[in-house]
Amino acid sequence: MSKRYIADQHFFDDDVRVKMDKRPFDNCEEMNSYMIDQWNSVVRGGDDVYVLGDMFDWKGAGSALPINKVLHKLKGRIVLLKGNHDIWLKKKDIDLERFEKIETQIEMGDKKKEVLLNHYPILFFGKNHTKSPDGGLKKFMLHGHVHDSPEAKLLYEMEEMAAGRSFETAHDGVEPMVCNLINCWCGYSDYKPLTLNEWINKSLQLTSEDAIAKRRS
Fold first, then answer.
1. Who's near 76: CB < 8 A, 6+ residues apart?
2. Considering the entire predicted model, what is its pTM?
3. What pLDDT does residue 135 have?
4. pLDDT value at 33 more than 50
């Protein structure tokens, strides 16, 4: 059993496929099929998959039937963190029994680390500078929403800016303003739900500044 995370698949969403993300698929059918295959290539039956919002597009799906078909093709136990595009949740005949939970925000442990899950990025989410006994960072904020958009680039700039500053703690120590966010946009993982450690390693690959890499090591 493992915990895996992914965000912003936007099944059936032609606007996201063509305009926002410019995904390399000729149509939504091809995109949906690929995302299902990629999901099932790493997820096993006992795995918990946390989808960090914007899973389906209601307009593109047209009804509950195609959404339910996709849900039942995906392996594992699905937990959904609601995103701004998840209006399909309120539609008639959606098989909500397919989800273990549907929440707005979750805080939980993952092995020896802690995670805060939300569709939206929160720069300063509490205890984000906390260290593990081995000196590594202990708590991570996993999110979606910004994809690989100009918003995402601005978010990364803000993280870098914060990391270059420090503050005095309540115990008279001095800590850097570590934000410690991980953007779990599905395009970064080739549409596979990844484990926390895999996302941490992926975030290192996606950053070029040594300062950012050091604070996530």
1. 4, 43, 44, 45, 46, 47, 48, 49, 193
2. 0.90
3. 59
4. yes
Structure tokens at 120: 């939206």
Evaluate whether 86 touches 55 at the Cβ level (below 8 Å).
yes
Q: Report pLDDT digits (tens) over 52-65.
A: 999 999 999 999 99
Two structure tokens written together for 158: 């803000």
Tokens 């950053």 found at: 207
What is the token pair recorded at 50?
Answer: 């946390």
Q: 189 is written with which tokens? A: 């993982």
Q: 175 forms bridges with which residues in the sheet?
A: 167
Task: Give the pLDDT band of residue 212 (cuts 50, 70, 90).
Answer: very low
CA–CA gap between residue 17 and residue 1 (Å, rounded): 32
Sheet holding 77-81, edge to edge: 3-6, 48-51, 77-81, 99-103
Give the separation between CA 171 and CA 166, rounded to whole angstroms: 14
What does R_g of the chain's alpha carbons equal in angstroms?
18
Q: What span, in angstroms and rounded, lies between the C-alpha atoms of 98 and 4?
A: 17
Dihedral of CA atoms 146, 150, 151, 152 in degrees, nearest 10, equals 60
Backbone angles phi, psi at 40, to 5 degrees: -70, -15
Q: How far apart are CA 55 and CA 85, in angstroms?
A: 8
Q: What is the mean pLDDT of residues 83-89?
A: 97
